[in-house]
Specification:
Its EC number is 5.3.1.17. It is a single chain. This protein has two helices and 24 strands. By secondary structure, it is mainly beta. It has one domain: Jelly Rolls (Sandwich), CATH 2.60.120. Strand 7 and strand 8 form a beta hairpin.
Length: 281
């Protein structure tokens, strides 16, 4: 079993405006999160947010402190963590208590948990735990959340190709968290646009993880300031880091689901600065 990580340093809208396609992808795109029997994290300097993946196939994977990065005795010494299973049936053990996580089910693990392990029920159909982590100043209870327990919000319409269902899973109106928020949005049949009209929220950053994308299809993710947008092409099970100053919206060439995660100084989900469609450039 291996634990690996990479770092992404924060840059502002002026610097991002100078980047070409390769530069944008290097700074904001996360190409791969899942390797067999490995825990991998991308550490960002936007609110010190971490985006990760764990895919246990043969081994039970331990969530270990990362030498040279966290400088803590265990990973959750001063952090909280959310995970959503996008693969086969899995199990998450937290300080000796086991939580079964099916496909598209989530778990929140609070600050102070010392022993965390990830495993698959069937290594031939391994679980794939997509993880987000943020610094935490207090401890909140560990909880498993299913889609049925989430806040379900239906938005958009087929006429505007953005009919979607939002599942707010790790949100303060559903469970107690410190600052981490996570959820999942499923596009409905015939709809391809997510989060449109676009918005920004300067009080928190965000990360998007796209999955359930058919082979050969892709998502164009739009970022940048509302007055000067850029785009990134993403494939299945790829993620993108969204700075607080950037819009974050996407359109797919096929159906897909995406997981959103946020952290920052405001827990109000609806705290956003909206940008009308005809104002985007």
């Amino acid at each position: 079993m291996k634990s690996t990580f990479e770092s992404r340093y924060a840059i502002g809208p002026v610097e991002a405006r100078q980047l070409d396609t390769a530069g944008l992808r290097e700074n904001f795109l996360i190409k791969q999160l899942f390797w067999a029997d490995r825990v991998h994290f991308v550490h960002t300097h936007y609110d010190r947010y971490m985006v990760g993946g764990a895919m246990p196939v043969v081994e039970k994977l331990k969530l270990e402190s990362i030498a040279g990065l966290l400088k803590e005795p265990y990973f959750l010494s001063r952090r909280e963590l959310g995970a959503i299973n996008v693969g086969g049936a899995g199990i998450v053990e937290v300080d000796g208590e086991a939580f079964a996580l099916g496909h598209k089910e989530a778990i929140y693990i609070g600050r102070g948990a010392k022993e965390v392990y990830f495993s698959s029920v069937d290594g031939k159909r391994p679980a794939r735990f997509y993880m987000n982590s943020a610094p935490a100043h207090r401890s909140c209870p560990t909880r498993r959340i299913t889609k049925a327990e989430a806040n379900r919000i239906e938005l958009g319409s087929p006429e505007t190709a953005n009919h979607r269902v939002i599942y707010q899973m790790l949100l303060h109106t559903v469970i107690e968290t410190c600052q981490l928020q996570m959820g999942m949005t499923e596009l409905q049949a015939g709809s391809v646009w997510n989060t449109m009209p676009a918005h920004t929220h300067d009080r928190r950053m965000e990360a998007y993880f796209y999955f359930d994308l058919p082979e050969g299809q892709a998502v164009a993710h739009f970022m940048g300031t509302a007055g000067e947008t850029r785009h990134l092409w993403l494939g299945n099970e790829q993620a993108v880091v969204s700075p607080p100053w950037s819009i974050h919206s996407g359109v797919g060439t096929g159906s897909y689901t995406f997981i959103w995660g946020m952290a920052g100084e405001n827990m109000d989900y609806d705290d956003m600065d909206k940008h009308p469609i005809n104002s985007l450039r």
